[in-house]
Amino acid sequence: MIRSTDLPHTNVSQPPQRLFGAHLSIAGGHERAVEAAADRNMTTVQIFTKSTQQWVGKPLRPSSIAAFRRAVATHGIERPVAHASYLINLGSPDPDIRARSIDALACEVERCDALGIEDLVFHPGAHLGDGERVGLERVAQGVWEVLQRTQDCRVRLDLETTAGQGTCLGGPLAHLEAILQQCDARDPGDGSIRDRLAVCCDTCHLYAFGYDLVDPWGYHALMEELATRIGLERVRVWHLNDSARECGSRVDRHAGIGRGRLGLEPFRRLVNEPAFLATPLILETPKGTEAGEDLDLIHLRTLRGLLGMTTPILPPTPASTDGGSSPSPKPKRGYRRAGSLPPSQSRPNLKLDFDPDPDPKFNVTVSSFEPRALSEATDVECHQ
Ligand SMILES: [Zn+2]
Ligand SMILES: [Zn+2]
């Protein structure tokens, strides 16, 4: 069991547990998000520590900090996660924005530290026309400065994968790898930088950028690339979101689990990955109710239903239906180019309750980003 033994929702007869949670609102107090998570039988939670529209939030009151910490302990919430403000752009060409971003991120690290939150997810930023190499260097410099300024904090910065929209960095894993490498190189040898910098993977963003998680080999190739470039142990948080838009679209539009282009199969694989048994798996899916039931609850039930499921939900692709004579055909390296899959293979063999886009453009090649170029990502421009 992942959870401690004296928790209100613990049931020893349950199937294997994972750290399932969702991004929840702190309206009414930070502890409210924890209470809402517990009400939904979640084992972890993600919050903003302040309004996302502000660079610097008003200071946390000791009573708020105490209430949050007490709620986390009472409800057995593990590894709560924070998400940083979207205003932050460490890659900005504007030195003022960059300085404000560094201040704001450092401030968020301190808030997390006060609240006892050890993972702060943030988006790498956008180069806004200055190119990927320059942008990535700026981000790495900014990350390093934030880590330097918050040396006393027990908070990790988790770079999130992005859909690569516009000039946003973080679409290819090679971007994150470049930032990690540049920061790791400045670790004084005691892990004070290296151990405080990790990665958050978002299934919707990965897919929208062009990693085809639906295809079994695409999924395998992603895991291989993650292991090679980042290290699976350095993936500290997963955002589990289905994607309303097609692979390679570079459009970040989240959908409920099993209700978008990803379907259930990538989630079945992910929730059963031994490497992520104790990794927070966070929903950032559209909120609301359906037939009076909370959508987060519905998605969590779906995800829990996939635990221990060993049978693929997708029919096997032709490449793997050779009667088992070649049990380990060589998976493709890198991700699929957008539009490379016919709809029948790209979509789950499931009845979805709605079609997020009645006019899929699977045959349009959106991305011309080549996996070969990833190793020299610092010289590669985003294709828009
Ligand atoms: Zn996310
Ligand atoms: Zn997103």
Automatic annotation (TrEMBL):
Q: Which UniProt keywords apply?
A: DNA damage, DNA repair, Endonuclease, Hydrolase, Metal-binding, Nuclease, Zinc
Is DNA damage among the key words of this record? yes
- Superkingdom of origin: Bacteria
Per its UniProt entry, what is the enzyme's top EC class, as one word? hydrolase
Enumerate the residues binding Zn(2+) 2: E160, D202, H239, E284
The record's free-text note on cofactor binding: Binds 3 Zn(2+) ions.
State which Enzyme Commission number(s) the record gives.
3.1.21.2
> Per its Swiss-Prot or TrEMBL entry, what cofactor is needed?
Zn(2+)
User: Which residue ranges does the record annotate as region Disordered?
Assistant: 310-384
Q: Name one GO molecular function term.
A: zinc ion binding
| Binding residues for Zn(2+) 1 | H83, H123, E160
Offer one example of a GO biological process linked to this entry: base-excision repair
Q: Where is the Xylose isomerase-like TIM barrel domain?
A: 34-296
Q: Which SMART domains match?
A: AP2Ec (SM00518)
Reactions the enzyme catalyzes: Endonucleolytic cleavage to 5'-phosphooligonucleotide end-products
Q: State where Zn(2+) 3 binds.
A: H205, D252, H254
Bias class Basic and acidic residues marks the residues at 350-360
Q: Which family does it belong to?
A: Belongs to the AP endonuclease 2 family.
Its function? Endonuclease IV plays a role in DNA repair. It cleaves phosphodiester bonds at apurinic or apyrimidinic (AP) sites, generating a 3'-hydroxyl group and a 5'-terminal sugar phosphate.
Q: Which HAMAP family match?
A: Nfo (MF_00152)
Q: What is this protein called?
A: Probable endonuclease 4
Organism of this sequence: Isosphaera pallida (strain ATCC 43644 / DSM 9630 / IS1B)
Q: Lineage of the native species?
A: Bacteria, Pseudomonadati, Planctomycetota, Planctomycetia, Isosphaerales
Gene that specifies this protein: nfo
